[in-house]
Design a protein that fits this description.
By secondary structure, this protein is mainly α. It is built from 19 helices and nine strands. The protein starts with a helix and ends with a helix.
Length: 426
């Protein structure tokens, strides 16, 4: 017994020593390339130009979506991000001396963006999408730094993450990074602050790096790392389905490049209106992107896509699901039309709406239960409020309506059970 305990203690000591060696030797930041310009000696004109470019980098990187405060200050931090392990709050990234990033150099910002390591060596949680930002160009990083440092500081403390053990132990992130954090590209990357004639390459950079689309749209493994073999194939995040946005997945739901450009630029298309976590993406990011960059994103996402093949409407669903049809006529048809045609700027069409097409009914059920608030999209475009029906439909009625919508316009023949609908979160 004593011998066994000694062996066990020896193994434990070996593991601890090995972990310390690995932590010190292999989990720090990698190479940091030299700054794109002499940032200490910028003229006022050069600084203004870089700040303008940096604001666009921040827009395309959607910084505000995670760093906005609950009372609406763009970069003051506090946005909650729900994970299976607890809640992480966006940090204050204003140049506040006590609570923000005033002490960051441009190299420090690059280290954060690419390696997820803050000044002082603290590891960031991968809710900060450094595994996507890892390929940011040094010029884009430097422009972003100039812009961030030009913002008004907000003296507001950061809210600590609320994670369960052992995920609240930040040093363990070093080992997560060792396995899942990609290295930056070997060659300098062509960012968005430089002209780019290759539309597809620019779209790839916008989608895969700054836009970090994969962070929401790619399923994750047990370690909460993205599954490399299911890139952009859809994921449930914060009780909403971020759908499959591979070329084949988009085409199956009737998307083409033009509709996708309209959706990204205006938040509205025949396939629906931006909802859940995509609406902040429109509000803070995509509606500020140039038409050329929106086109680049759509072109990249639709690259080599097959011809759109959205499901054909199934009028026979009216007879198959008379109860659901009656609920539709009583609650929905006044705005969406008897045949799901919708009303311009009032209600989206249902005969081409992707929420009815998803195998997972999560978004459709939540929209019916919770409704959608009235929203300003872009320019003069608004969408009127859709009321919530959770207090007007019992479980069986909700199920009948959900099945009717899916069967008539979503291409689904099989009905969902009451349990499948009522167990839907949200």
């Amino acid at each position: 017994m004593r011998r066994a305990l000694l062996i066990l203690a020896g193994l434990l000591a070996f593991v601890v020593v090995a972990a310390v060696i690995v932590y010190v030797a292999f989990t720090g930041p990698g190479e940091i390339p030299p700054a794109s310009r002499d940032l200490a000696n910028l003229s006022a004109e050069e600084r203004a130009e870089m700040a303008q470019a940096g604001e666009y980098v921040a827009r395309t990187g959607d910084c505000v979506a995670c760093h906005k405060s609950p009372d609406g200050l763009s970069l003051a931090g506090g946005t909650p991000m729900e994970t299976p392990f607890g809640t992480i709050y966006g940090s204050n990234i204003t140049p506040s001396r006590d609570h923000g990033i005033s002490g960051y150099s441009a190299d420090d910002l690059y280290r954060v963006m690419v390696y997820g390591i803050a000044p002082g060596g603290s590891h960031l949680y991968p809710a900060m999408p450094y595994t996507s930002y890892h390929a940011i160009s040094r010029a884009d990083n430097d422009a972003l730094w100039v812009w961030l440092m030009a913002q008004e500081p907000v003296e507001r403390p950061n809210r600590p993450a609320e994670l369960i053990f052992p995920f609240n132990l930040r040093p363990l992130l070093a080992f997560w990074n060792l396995i899942y954090r990609p290295d930056p590209p070997d060659q300098p990357v062509h960012g968005i602050t430089a002209p780019q004639e290759d539309q597809l390459a620019r779209g790839r950079y916008l989608v895969e790096v700054l836009g970090h689309c994969s962070e929401c749209h790619t399923p994750r493994n047990l370690a909460y790392a993205r599954k490399a073999d299911a890139h952009l194939q859809g994921n449930v995040i914060e009780d909403a389905l971020a759908p499959d946005i591979t070329p084949a997945g988009l085409a199956r739901r009737g998307w083409n490049t033009q509709d996708l450009e309209r959706f990204l630029g205006q938040g509205l298309s025949p396939q629906g209106v931006m909802t859940f976590r995509m609406f902040p993406v429109l509000s803070h990011s995509t509606k500020y992107m140039t038409p050329e960059d929106i086109a680049a994103v759509a072109t990249y996402l639709m690259q080599d896509a097959p011809a759109p093949t959205s499901p054909e409407p199934r009028p026979e669903a009216i007879a198959q699901n008379a109860e659901g049809h009656n609920h539709y006529l009583g609650l929905c048809a006044g705005c969406h039309g008897a045949n799901g045609e919708g009303q311009p700027y009032g209600s989206v069409p249902l005969r081409s709406n992707t929420s009815t097409m998803f195998d997972n009914p999560l978004n459709l059920v939540r929209i019916i239960r919770e409704g959608i608030p009235a929203r300003h999209l872009t320019g003069y475009q608004r969408m009127q409020e859709m009321p919530a029906f959770k207090d007007r439909l019992n479980d069986a009625e909700l199920t009948a309506l959900v099945n009717y919508l899916r069967q008539r316009w979503g291409g689904h023949e099989q009905a969902l059970s009451v349990e499948a609908v009522t167990d839907t979160p949200g």
